[in-house]
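Researcher: Going back to the complex we discussed earlier. I've cleaned up the inputs and rechecked each line, so this should be the final set. Can you rerun the prediction on the complete assembly and write out the structure?
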Amino acid sequence: ETGVTQTPRHLVMGMTNKKSLKCEQHLGHNAMYWYKQSAKKPLELMFVYSLEERVENNSVPSRFSPECPNSSHLFLHLHTLQPEDSALYLCASSQDWGQLYNEQFFGPGTRLTVL
Amino acid sequence: DQQVKQNSPSLSVQEGRISILNCDYTNSMFDYFLWYKKYPAEGPTFLISISSIKDKNEDGRFTVFLNKSAKHLSLHIVPSQPGDSAVYFCAATTNTGKLIFGQGTTLQVKP
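Model: Rerun complete. Updated structure for the full complex:
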C-alpha cells in the first residue's frame, strides 16, 4: 500500500451505533488530519495530530472522538451521530504541522450515511 | 464567514480550449495558495501552488495567477483535456500550515 488509505470506504450507521473510521499513511509523515466534506461545502478541518499529539480541534462535537496511536495511524470514533453528520470524511497527512509550504496528501475518504 | 470562495460551482469547456477557474479570498494574511484536483471516489490531489511573493507559477499545462490587490487567484488549463474533468479546490494558508478550502468548482471538458 502506498500513500494514504482509509477504511471503510462506505459506512451506513444508525444514530445509536458506535463505529470507527481508520486511516493509515505510508509516507513517513508526522502530521495527520481529519476533514469533513458535506455536499456543496468546503472541506472543513476537524482535527490535527502532530507527532501523535492533538494540536487542533475545530469545535467538533464530542460525538466525534479522534485517536492517534502512532504517527502512521489515525482513527475517528463515532458515537450517537445525527443524520446531518452524513458526509465524506477525508484523512490527510503532511510531512510536518505548522509550516507554510505544507502539501497535504489525502486518502480516498469514507462516505458516511447516518440513518 | 467563508475566507476562500469559488463562486462558480461548475464550468464546461471544449477539449483543446482554455479552462479558467477562479478563487477569491478575504484574509490578507494568507501567504500560500494551492489548487487541488479531485476525481470521484478519490481524495483530493495536489496540483499546483503559488507563494504570495509571486504573481504567476506555471507547471506544464497548468498556470496559477495571483492578484494580491484584488485578493484573487485563478487556475488556467491550456489546452484542456477530457481527463481534466474533475472538481478543483482552491486552498489558502498562513504560516500555521492550516489549509482553508473553497467549496470547489466542477470542470467538465467535452471531447
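Model: Worth noting: The first strand of chain A starts at residue 4 and ends at 7.
Researcher: Good, that matches what I expected from the previous run.
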